[in-house]
């Protein structure tokens, strides 16, 4: 197997697939709007299936639309060593979030084909449905169901803002597959991704060896006041939901700061119930995303915030409801796979550091089922979830080479006796 150490991906080919698929949902500002299960998502999925089949992979789709592309190994009794990520984007997403890891997996398969290499264990490339969580909550929905956190029926019945259920959306683009969710077993999982934060670039480091993912808690909130006339209601008599919400937003920021520098909290959506210029807002619906590497900090932020909400509601005669709709505990990755990523990185001579992921990833769900780790590469100014998201061809190639070498190590490792 010594020849495989010299094997490299074709960085130019990887780059051209990233640019080619960026046309599905391309925005005028140079980003991508490819919400999960949209027509554009259907188009990129069709492209991906065709490209995988052209690379000799056997493609199957599960009942949540996740695409699995298998490259046979010499020993088909071994569980496949898997890689992949997602091809859906945020509404104002970039060209790299999820896409790099998925298309780098394709590039790995092509490079192995070109070199005529057969691995011992089979390899599996995965495009997980709805990693982003923008159209349907929660994020990383299909990999969570795959890991047994949700039933397929539960996920199928979730609706987007327009009332379209997941099952209906899958049918609309022809991706309600026949493979039972979770039936396919995997031996290990490695996900390449842009860092989506500023650390690697600031330190001029090429590879992040990711040791785990931080915890995430998602909430839905509703502030209820009383709608009344903007011209006739004296200030002291108002029960203005928007002003109550303004206090909530500042309380969220203050509490996250108090648990800094690790804790982060974001109100990404806030909507006035029936907005009108001359009506005092009676209802605000909002979302809240809280993250920290420690579960205890998530607990503390939540309980401090609930106390603040009670105080705001009392003072302003409002009703404030806050419902936790999802919580993902912090996830440590597998020491063996983290070590394999680090060894591959060293072997390739790239600068590297260990780190914890700030973003959620499908790998965090798969870690419950199989030994898992991630590889990060820098992105420009640490910007992600933005149309300006950018990464260099050199860093994408470096990440794909680390992925290739890590997969080779895992797929060719001797089977342990017993
Ligand atoms: C997924 O993109 C996340 O919210 O971390
Ligand atoms: Mn992603
Ligand atoms: Mn994302």
From TrEMBL:
Its EC number is 3.5.1.87. One of its GO terms (molecular function) is hydrolase activity, acting on carbon-nitrogen (but not peptide) bonds, in linear amidines. InterPro entries: Amidase_Cbmase (IPR010158), Bact_exopeptidase_dim_dom (IPR036264), Peptidase_M20 (IPR002933), Peptidase_M20_dimer (IPR011650). Zn(2+) 2 binds at residues 97, 132, 385. Keywords: Hydrolase, Metal-binding, Zinc. Signal peptide: none annotated. Its cofactor is Zn(2+). Binds 2 Zn(2+) ions per subunit. Residues 214-314 form the Peptidase M20 dimerisation domain. Zn(2+) 1 binds at residues 86, 97, 193. Belongs to the peptidase M20 family. This is N-carbamoyl-L-amino-acid hydrolase. The lineage of its organism: Bacteria, Pseudomonadati, Pseudomonadota, Alphaproteobacteria, Hyphomicrobiales.
